[in-house]
Write a structure and sequence with these properties.
Layout (H helix, E strand, L loop, with lengths): L1 E2 L5 E5 L2 E8 L4 E5 L2 H4 L4 E5 L2 E6 L10 H17 L4 H9 L4 H6 L3 H16 L27 E4 L8 E3 L2 H8 L3 E7 L9 E9 L2 E10 L4 H14 L7 E4 L3 H10 L4 E4 L1 H14 L3 H6 L1 H12 L5 H14 L5 H12 L16 H4 L2 H4 L1
């Protein structure tokens, strides 16, 4: 057992991180760290620091270096608070004993140094922690960049649904002049008062770079629409020709509403992730992990994305005819959301939530 950067107990077991769910005089019940935002059902019970029982399956892959990464970052933060060592020395010492796998899981060097600098400044002159979004007072450190450029571009004010948009003039300029944007919501790194950190990346000079960061209090279509409208206010020429999304239905609807001419693409990684989550949701993770034949049948579903669009449904029907009975809940989920269920009386299939052209990547890989 160890502590998070915020000083809360955390337990690492077989590559998964757990936080306390319930505690009695002789036993602690832990839930997966992704329980709140990722709906992961993995749990374990410990007694005197020893694992005595695991319960439920995780809906995500383990990260075997996660414990090392947390320990290293805690060490760096504590050193920043307690010593006068240089930022470079603190980071160098913090990563010196990490495995190669753990090092690849860390943020880049510049981000680590910025974190150490923020910790040091906060410790020297910290503001009281807010209890709600209404009373949130933003430290001047986060309003401007290290080069003294405006970073906080929009603050909806002291309301419960408070939204914060961060960017720079240069990033907004990139946003207005890119052909591709990439949208994604992150839940594990968001501050406690917020539901998600929403990011917009752009292609710029053959690189993919972050352009906008948004702290959102929820994930309703209304919030996404308000967010995009405020970004348009900041960057009037923002009208992306191509948008890659993470299969968040509410954000997709908001994008289509505000940018009706944009071409939407579903992210293949998130397609695979959604299918894997359905495997765990239906209690099939153990079968998937231990039966390679079953796992191959599951992996045939996202592989449909690489076929020409006209071949997707005929090939899906072939897969369906051979699909194992145990995997039918996953097959049904995929058909309802990504293929479209057959209607009666030989009518065309119903339109799925995410139509085939949205997630098909055939033309992108040729």
């Amino acid at each position: 057992m160890m502590e998070t950067i915020k000083g809360k107990p955390i337990f690492e077991h077989q590559g998964y991180l757990y936080i306390i769910n319930k505690e009695s005089s002789n036993k602690i019940i832990w839930c997966c760290r992704n329980y709140r935002h990722g709906q992961c059902r993995g749990r374990l019970h410990t007694m005197n620091g020893q694992v005595i029982q695991t319960v439920g399956d995780h809906n995500h892959e383990p990260v075997h270096s996660a414990g090392q990464v947390i320990a290293a970052r805690i060490k760096m933060n504590n050193t920043a608070k307690q010593t006068g060592h240089t930022t470079h020395d603190i980071v160098a010492d913090g990563v010196s004993k990490l495995s190669d796998r753990a090092i690849t899981s860390l943020p880049n060097l510049q981000n680590l140094k910025r974190t150490v600098q923020r910790i040091r400044q906060k410790h020297q002159n910290s503001l009281p922690l807010p209890t709600d979004r209404n009373s949130l007072v933003i430290d001047p450190l986060f309003i401007r960049t290290p080069r003294n450029r405006t970073f906080l571009q929009f603050d909806s004010g002291p309301i419960d649904q408070r939204m914060l948009i961060f960017s720079t003039k240069k990033q907004l300029h990139m946003l207005e002049n890119t052909n591709y944007i990439y949208l994604d919501g992150a839940f594990s790194v968001v501050p406690e008062l917020y539901f998600q950190l929403y990011t917009i990346h752009v292609t710029y000079l053959k690189h993919i770079l972050p352009a906008v960061y948004v702290l959102l209090p929820g994930k309703k279509q209304r919030l996404y629409k308000e967010m995009l409208q405020e970004i348009k206010n900041l960057a009037p020429n923002f009208d992306p020709p191509n948008v890659m999304i993470d299969f968040e239905y509410a954000s997709m609807k908001a994008i289509r509403n505000l940018f009706p001419t944009s071409h939407l693409y579903g992210c293949f990684f998130h397609l695979c992730q959604n299918i894997y989550r359905s495997v765990t949701r239906f209690g099939l993770k153990t079968l998937y992990d231990e039966n390679e034949s079953f796992a191959q049948q599951i992996r045939r579903l996202p592989a449909l994305a690489f076929l020409p669009i006209t071949n997707v449904i005929p090939t899906f029907d072939e897969i369906k005819a051979q699909f194992p009975v145990e995997g039918e809940p996953v097959l049904t989920y995929f058909e309802e959301n990504y293929i479209g269920v057959k209607s009666r009386l030989s009518r065309p299939r119903k339109i799925p939530k995410f139509d085939i052209p949205l997630w098909n990547v055939n033309t992108n890989t040729l």
